[in-house]
Design a protein that fits this description.
Layout (H helix, E strand, L loop, with lengths): L2 H22 L4 H15 L2 H9 L13 H9 L7 H13 L2 H13 L4 H18 L1 H8 L9 H16 L1 H14 L12 H17 L1 H9 L3 H10 L7 H11 L3 H19 L1 H10 L4 H22 L4 H14 L4 H11 L12 H14 L4 H7 L2 H4 L2 H8 L5 H11 L2
Length: 415
């Protein structure tokens, strides 16, 4: 292949690397959009385009001698696409890299003069396979970069901690304690745990909870009070034992409201990953009290409706499924919860099809008309969303049957 042909190939290879990596990662929409913006900004940097124009590519398809820096520089000014056959070859090549090869590639990228956007993108593409092949080595090699960038690298390293903790929780806990003592997770004098520290603890404790519940409780009890609720908010719930989780919450928190909120946090995460039955298991096996169950049910309903709205799949059928589940676990709550959940979902949805207040109001009115009380509309109108959409909310007030409640709402919304 000619030098020109090899250069063009490296242009499309670099873009294919990014496309392949995106396809392999399970990332949130916000993370993906942020990363795409960073990549586009990097591509627009003129001095890198000029550098790319003078860069001589080192390899063609399948050649092992091209450096990651060369691929990235060639890709800055690149365009075009790559066929499925070549994409598959690239995936195979990445999967066959050993931990040693990935470690060397990461050292090369870190010491290069690439723009930050490209360095971060190539980093993250390689770190996933690195963690899968050698989680402990990934932690040791990259721990000094814990606080870099937007937190993406830290999140990947916390996944390495989770993988290691699953295999050997005692060793993972010992490593984390050493790094805490060494200042790796320093909170810089603030009387709360740093976000990286919380993320690592939230990756470790679930594994300890399975093997050594007493050690798990001891760790969480030692957290500053201000950090405990943040910990429960982000704690991993994969393969969570509801009874042990409930025991952990009750042994580490004192206030009843905080305990109920912790159950609401985990209910949100369980609903997002496992649906209604996962939350039902928490209520049953965790032996939640009436107040704790109420918070869990309320949060589950809100999560289910908001998630459906965000996906553009919210229908009367999905709302009815939520209502039926809520009525079983918290009899008589379904109307109030429906109004609250519909109001809370406003603004969610695909970029071009947001769940609007008008749509939420129409659904609230629809379910109000089927109910024998004012709970759906009352809870909907008493929400923060209704307060920020007063003009659209006012026509609903006259549908309230209770004259005293109707009068109070008119006073709240004004003439």
């Amino acid at each position: 292949m000619s030098v020109k042909g090899r250069f063009i190939f490296l242009h499309v290879l670099a873009l294919a690397l990014i496309g392949t990596w995106v396809g392999l990662q399970r990332r949130s929409l916000s993370e993906m959009e942020g990363e795409t913006a960073a990549l586009r900004k990097s591509i627009r940097e003129r001095h890198f385009a000029e550098a790319a124009s003078s860069q001589t590519p080192a390899a063609a398809a399948g050649d092992q001698n091209a450096t990651w820096a060369e691929i990235a520089r060639a890709g800055v000014a690149g365009g075009g696409g790559l066929g499925q056959r070549d994409r598959t070859r690239l995936q195979v090549k990445l999967s066959r890299m050993s931990a040693e090869e990935i470690a060397a590639a990461l050292h090369e990228i870190e010491s290069s003069d690439l723009a930050e956007g490209w360095r971060s993108t190539l980093d993250r593409m390689l770190i996933g396979p690195f963690i899968e092949k050698a989680a402990v080595r990934a932690l040791e090699q990259l721990k000094h970069r814990m606080n870099e960038g937007d937190g993406g690298l830290m999140m990947q390293l916390s996944k390495a901690m989770a993988a290691w903790a699953h295999e050997d929780p005692a060793a993972a806990a010992a490593w984390l304690d050493r790094e805490i003592a060494a200042g790796t997770f320093d909170s810089k004098g603030v009387a709360v745990l740093s976000h990286p520290r919380l993320r690592f603890e939230a990756s470790l404790v679930p594994a300890l909870l399975k093997s050594d519940p007493a050690s798990a409780a001891q760790r969480v009890k030692a957290f500053p009070n201000e950090s405990k609720m943040n910990f429960y908010l982000i704690m991993a719930v994969s393969e969570l034992d509801p009874a042990r989780y409930a025991a952990l919450v009750r042994s580490t928190l004192e206030k009843e409201k905080d305990i109920a909120d912790a159950f609401a946090f985990v209910a949100h995460n369980l609903q997002s990953k496992g649906g209604f039955e996962s939350v039902a298991n928490l209520i049953r096996e965790g032996k939640l009290s009436a107040a704790e169950s109420a918070r869990a049910v309320d949060q589950t309903a809100s999560t289910q409706i908001s998630t459906a709205a965000n996906r553009g799949t919210l229908t009367t059928g999905s709302i009815n499924a939520m209502r039926e589940w809520a009525a079983y676990w918290l009899p008589g709550s379904q109307d109030k919860i429906t109004g609250e959940a519909l109001a809370g979902a406003v603004g969610f949805g695909p970029r071009d099809v947001k769940f609007s207040f008008e749509h939420a109001a129409a659904l609230a009115l629809q379910f109000h008309e089927k109910a024998d009380n004012d709970d759906v509309l009352a809870s909907f109108l008493q929400s923060h969303r209704a307060q920020t959409h007063k003009e659209q909310a006012r026509p609903l007030i006259d549908h309230i049957a209770d004259p005293a409640l109707r009068g109070n709402l008119w006073e709240k919304f004004g003439p």
